[in-house]
Every structure is written in structure tokens, then in C-alpha cells.
């Protein structure tokens, strides 16, 4: 695009030189830039389109990095990145060696904190604000939080501990959505604040009267305009936020830059803590995203003209939708089954169950801890809850899994979506921890590598024969054609590939099986025969499996999981306890700061691609040196 005005903005200080008319034009240019670039690279679109004016106003009033802006989740940070010297980087947004999709201090001094998960910004901002006070440093701390984040309890823990901080501003970016539509009492409360007519009716009556008063009417009108926050507060009486210790302002039109900037300048002059409530339109400026913001929350590349994105909503052919359809079918025959998700109904494929069994479907908002303990409560009363959460978010509920589910052996099924490596979103969204933390407390875990296995094992885990907590995990997107061809044997493990006279074996699970198959075939061409085993039940192991693989001299276990505490470490211990004397190699994720890249690129970076795995066996068997 050709935007001379936008090209002149290389640092936030450049914004302060613009006239009001130029600011309006800049906001339009930013929207056009975001649409053009995100349609080519993919990324979070609707949330960023809605936050343009807010971000411009923040940078017009405050001065980063002295003033620090902490974004909750960070789905709305693209305008911030654009205004802080990273315009050229958008060509490689969420790609290897390119811009992160989230704020990250390692990328820019203007990014206060890494922001990949929700509900965290207020606690972080309170910490930064106190640090400033303890060191006697100037500057404000601004936490930008979407209304979806207010469905998570950590926000209220932070609000309860603001401690009269005079350098803190919380901005509620209220767009009536997180990813899926917001639910619950807080959503209804914010809606009441947004839609009450008393203030707006009174304001229009006063305006109309003053317009008819000669001489003194216009000055009085301006005075009242500047004091409208007091008027609003008088009419609303009090708010929950004021009761928590904030000075509350709002709601304001968050897509009116002049209005937002004006109130920010007023707030900036007063000691805090302040709470600014603005209402924005998610997807603002792009009609398809405005009408369907959920579909345009996170998109892959798409055509701006045809506007058919590959959205965050699970595609028709995906593990998520296979899971959702199977669960829906099982829910029809077993009325004890309930489905629970944390603001991810469509992303997890639960829209089918929600439509067919609405009374047994629960979207608890961005509250993973509550989701798990809620499930434990249901299970204690004979209900069979299925808690479906992305792997990267399930780790937020680990205490609840340990204490509320596992100690009492409650009958809870954990359905773990986006397990293993996840493309583009980088270190904040990887599904590489759940095998380690679930196996640590002995929860049986299944990891199907294709749709057929998911369709077979999910009903098994939902059957009355199963007792206690158990988990089934599956990757983002669709199945591999290579792994789909193997179908489902119904066994907990499979001997997939047999090479004559093999003394070495590869073992893996889920998507990584394709890489070990490829590695075995590469070595077979070099007359280094290797067998391949695939685990479906990845933990605990059966005695039969340990006995069968003990005949190999060399075993390499590869997994898209953290190395420390991973399934491979459990297998090594089990083998040596059984008396095995061979050479064991564990290949997993050692460096947890994974790049935002494609899955093949992540595998290459972690040494979990076929070439690296084959070379490891080659070195072990032949003693060769890495070339």
C-alpha cells in the first residue's frame, strides 16, 4: 500500500506531531495496512482492527518505554508494533526469524512483557508499577485488557491488590467477545454498563437545552462536556470497579480516537489507580470481520476480495471436529456426558455438542482452573465431564488437576487440543508440557496419530468400564496422509515398521511418528535396519510393551514434549528397571523457547526431524561424526 503518512511513523514520538485530521487518516491507513499484510501472512485480525484508535491514543498521550503498556493476551498488539518501529517486519509476521504475533521484550524495548496467555496483564502491571515506586522512577503503567479476560479469576486477584497505586491505569477494551462469544455474569454486567440509557438521554437533553441558551450556552456546554465523567458516575451511582478502589471512567467510544485521547489526557493528570472502560467494534473497518469476528479472530492467509479465511474456528477436516462429532454422538447415547470448554467452543469443535445437548454444554469463559474443578464437582455426583482445553492453556489448571481431580480419582476426561508443536504462535502456545505433567501424577494418556484412532479411543475412554481421570490428546489441524494410511488396530501400541535383523528401534507417538518412519527408511537405504513402534497409550506402559522392545540393542525415543519429565524419561527408567542393558537415546524439546515457525521448521530447530533422528542412530551404530 502507499501511505506516506504511515511511513513517517518510525517511533511513537512521531505520533505526537500529527494534527487531529492526520490522526484520523493514520488510523484509516493502519487498518488498510493490517488488512493487506495479515491477509498475506495470517495472524490475529479482528481484535487488532478494533484496537487501532485506542493504541494510537495511548501512544499520543503516554511515552514508552518510560510509560509501560502491558497487553493482556496480546491479540491486539499489531498497531503497537507498527507504531514502534516494526512496520517492515510485518512481511514475516509469525514466521521463522520474523515478528512475533505477541508482545515480547526481546523484540523491542517498547514491549513491557510477553503476553501469550490471558488474565495476566493486571498482575504484571501491578508488579511493574510497584517496582517503579520502589525505585522512585517516573512513568505510568497501563494494562490493556479485553472483556474476555474478565471471565478469568486472575484479573480479580489483581484488582483486589491494587493497593492504591497512583501510577496505574487499567483500560478495559470491551468488544463483547474474547474469541468465542463472552458468557456469564460479568458479561451481563458490562452489557448493562454499555447499554443503560439514563446517562445518554440526560446528556442529549442538556445539550439540546444549552444549544438554545444565548451567550452562556456554549461555554456551559463545554464545561459540562469536560465533566461528563462525574455526571455519568452520578447517574450510574457506583461500579464494581470503584468498589475495588479504582477511579472509573466510561464507557467511551473506543473507536473515536479524539474522545479516547481526550479522556486519557485528563486521566494522565490525576493520581490513580484509574479504570477506563471503552467499547470497541471487533473487526472494525472490514465488513466480513465486523459481522463475524469469531471467524476472523485468528486467520491463515486469505483473499481480501473473497474474504474466505482459514479461521481459528476448527476447519471441517481436523482432529478438533472429528473429536467434536464423536463426542456429540456419544452424548446422545450417554446422558451423563457433559462438555466443558474455556472460551473455545468453536476452536475445540464443541459447537456440535453445544447445539445438540445445550443443557450439558458449559463454556466457562477464560477460566481453565474453574473448568477443571467444576468438572471435579460434576464427577463427584456421578456425571461424566469432558474438559476440552488447548494444551498450552491446560497447564494453567495443573494445581486443580492434581488436587481436585487426581487425589480423589474423579471420573474426568481431559480432551487436550493443539497438542505437540503449534505453528506460528511461538513459545507461548506450544503443546509440549501436558505429557510430562500428566504422567508425573500417573494419569493415563492416549495420543492418537490419525482420525481412525481418535474415533476408536474416545468412546473407549467415555465408557463405564473406565474409572478415574484420563486424557486424550491430539494435534492442531488435520491428519497426516502417511499416518492415516495405517488406520487403527485397536491396540495400545503398534509395531509399524519391521526391518530384517534390526537391532535398533525408533519409538514415538502422535505426529512425530511420521518423522521416525522417514528416518527408519533413510537408514534402511544405508543398510542400517531399524524398526518403528507407535504408542497410542503413551503412559503408563504395559509389561508386554517393555518386554517386546527389550530385544533391541539401541532404542531412540522421539517426542514433541519437554525432555525433562517427558514420556521418554519414563520409558528409559522402565527399561532399565526391567534389566535391559542396551543404549537408550531420548530426543525431545531441550530449549523451551521455540521459534514462531512452521511445524517442520520447529522440528528441524529441535532436532526432531527425520534427518537429525537418522543421524543420531548413524552416530550411535557406526560411531560416525556429524558432517
DSSP strand count: 19
Distance between the termini: 46 Å
Q: What number is the mean pLDDT? A: 87
Rg from alpha-carbon coordinates = 27 Å
Count of individual domains: 3
Strand order of the largest sheet: 9-8-10-11-13-12-17
CATH architecture of the largest domain: 3-Layer(aba) Sandwich
Largest beta-sheet details: 7 strands, mixed
Binding site for thiamine diphosphate: 75, 148-149, 175, 286, 368
Cofactor: thiamine diphosphate; Mg(2+)
Pathway: Metabolic intermediate biosynthesis; 1-deoxy-D-xylulose 5-phosphate biosynthesis; 1-deoxy-D-xylulose 5-phosphate from D-glyceraldehyde 3-phosphate and pyruvate: step 1/1
Keywords: Isoprene biosynthesis, Magnesium, Metal-binding, Thiamine biosynthesis, Thiamine pyrophosphate, Transferase
3D structure, described in words:
It is a single chain. The chain is of the alpha/beta class. It folds into 3 domains: 6-211 and 240-291, Thiamin diphosphate (ThDP)-binding fold, Pyr/PP domains (Rossmann fold); 319-482, Thiamin diphosphate (ThDP)-binding fold, Pyr/PP domains (Rossmann fold, 3-Layer(aba) Sandwich); 492-622, Rossmann fold (3-Layer(aba) Sandwich). 41% of the residues lie in helices and 15% in strands. The chain has a 7-stranded mixed beta sheet, sandwiched between helices. The protein has a 5-stranded parallel beta sheet with strand order 2-3-4-6-5, sandwiched between helices. It is globular. The protein starts with a helix and ends in a 5-residue tail after the last helix. Mean pLDDT is 87; it is low at 197-203 and 228-237.
Quick recap:
The protein has 627 residues and is α/β, with parallel strands linked by helices. The longest helix is centred in the N-terminal third of the chain and has 22 residues, at 20-41.
Amino acid at each position: 500500500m502507499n501511505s506516506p503518512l504511515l511511513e513517517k511513523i518510525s517511533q511513537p514520538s512521531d505520533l505526537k506531531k500529527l494534527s487531529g485530521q492526520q490522526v484520523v487518516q493514520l488510523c484509516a491507513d493502519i487498518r488498510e495496512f493490517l488488512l493487506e499484510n495479515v491477509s498475506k501472512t495470517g495472524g490475529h485480525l479482528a481484535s487488532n482492527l478494533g484496537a487501532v484508535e485506542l493504541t494510537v491514543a495511548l501512544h499520543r498521550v503516554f511515552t514508552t518505554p518510560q510509560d509501560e503498556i502491558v497487553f493482556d493476551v496480546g491479540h491486539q498488539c499489531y498497531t503497537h508494533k507498527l507504531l514502534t518501529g516494526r512496520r517492515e517486519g510485518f512481511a514475516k509476521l509469525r514466521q521463522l526469524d520474523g515478528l512475533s504475533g505477541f508482545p515480547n521484550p526481546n523484540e523491542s524495548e517498547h514491549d513491557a512483557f510477553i503476553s501469550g496467555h490471558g488474565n495476566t496483564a493486571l498482575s504484571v502491571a501491578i508488579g511493574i508499577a510497584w517496582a517503579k515506586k520502589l525505585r522512585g522512577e517516573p512513568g505510568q503503567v497501563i494494562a490493556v485488557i479485553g472483556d474476555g479476560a474478565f471471565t478469568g479469576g486472575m484479573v480479580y486477584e489483581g484488582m483486589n491488590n491494587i493497593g492504591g497505586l497512583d501510577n496505574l491505569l487499567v483500560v478495559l477494551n470491551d468488544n463483547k467477545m474474547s474469541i468465542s462469544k463472552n458468557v456469564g455474569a460479568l458479561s451481563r454486567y458490562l452489557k448493562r454498563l454499555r447499554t443503560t440509557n439514563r446517562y445518554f438521554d440526560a446528556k442529549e437533553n442538556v445539550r439540546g437545552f444549552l444549544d438554545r441558551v444565548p451567550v452562556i450556552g456554549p461555554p456551559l456546554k463545554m464545561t459540562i462536556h469536560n465533566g461528563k465523567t462525574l455526571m455519568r458516575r452520578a447517574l450510574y451511582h457506583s461500579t464494581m470497579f470503584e468498589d475495588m478502589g479504582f477511579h472509573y471512567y466510561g464507557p467511551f467510544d473506543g473507536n473515536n480516537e479524539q474522545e479516547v485521547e481526550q479522556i486519557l489526557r485528563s486521566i494522565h493528570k490525576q493520581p490513580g489507580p484509574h479504570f477506563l472502560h471503552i467499547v470497541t467494534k471487533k473487526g472494525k473497518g472490514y465488513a466480513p470481520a465486523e459481522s463475524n469476528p469469531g471467524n476472523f479472530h485468528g486467520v491463515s492467509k486469505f483473499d481480501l476480495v473473497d474474504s474466505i479465511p482459514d479461521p481459528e474456528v476448527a476447519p471441517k477436516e481436523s482432529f478438533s471436529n472429528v473429536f467434536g462429532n464423536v463426542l456429540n454422538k456419544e452424548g446422545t447415547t450417554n446422558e451423563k456426558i457433559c462438555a466443558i470448554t474455556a472460551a473455545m467452543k468453536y476452536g475445540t469443535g464443541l459447537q456440535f455438542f453445544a447445539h445438540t445437548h445445550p443443557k450439558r454444554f458449559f463454556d466457562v469463559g477464560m477460566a481453565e482452573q474453574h473448568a477443571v474443578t467444576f468438572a471435579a464437582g460434576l464427577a463427584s455426583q456421578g456425571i461424566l465431564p469432558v474438559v476440552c482445553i488447548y494444551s498450552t492453556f491446560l497447564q494453567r489448571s495443573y494445581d486443580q488437576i492434581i488436587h481436585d481431580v487426581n487425589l480423589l480419582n474423579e471420573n474426568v476426561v481431559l480432551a487436550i487440543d493443539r497438542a505437540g508443536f503449534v505453528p506460528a504462535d511461538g513459545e507461548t502456545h506450544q503443546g509440549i508440557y501436558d505429557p510430562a505433567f500428566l504422567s508425573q501424577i500417573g494419569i493415563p494418556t492416549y495420543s492418537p496419530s490419525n482420525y481412525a484412532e481418535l474415533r476408536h479411543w474416545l468412546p473407549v475412554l467415555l465408557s463405564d468400564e473406565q474409572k478415574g481421570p484420563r486424557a486424550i490428546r491430539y494435534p492442531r489441524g488435520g491428519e497426516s496422509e502417511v499416518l492415516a494410511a495405517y488406520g487403527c488396530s485397536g491396540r495400545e501400541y503398534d509395531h509399524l515398521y519391521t526391518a530384517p535383523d534390526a537391532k535398533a528401534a525408533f519409538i514415538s507417538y502422535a505426529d512425530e511418528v511420521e518423522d521416525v518412519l522417514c528416518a527408519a527408511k533413510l537408514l534402511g537405504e544405508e543398510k542400517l535396519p531399524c524398526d518403528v513402534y507407535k504408542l497410542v497409550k503413551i503412559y503408563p506402559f504395559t509389561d508386554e510393551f517393555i518386554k517386546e522392545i527389550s530385544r533391541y540393542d539401541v532404542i531412540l525415543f522421539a517426542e514433541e514434549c519437554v525432555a525433562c519429565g517427558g514420556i521418554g524419561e519414563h520409558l528409559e527408567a522402565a527399561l532399565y528397571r526391567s534389566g535391559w542393558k542396551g543404549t537408550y537415546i531420548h530426543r525431545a524439546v531441550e530449549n523451551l523457547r521455540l521459534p514462531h515457525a512452521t511445524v517442520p521448521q520447529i522440528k528441524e530447530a529441535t532436532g526432531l526431524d527425520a534427518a537429525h533422528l537418522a543421524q543420531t542412530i548413524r552416530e550411535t551404530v557406526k560411531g560416525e561424526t556429524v558432517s
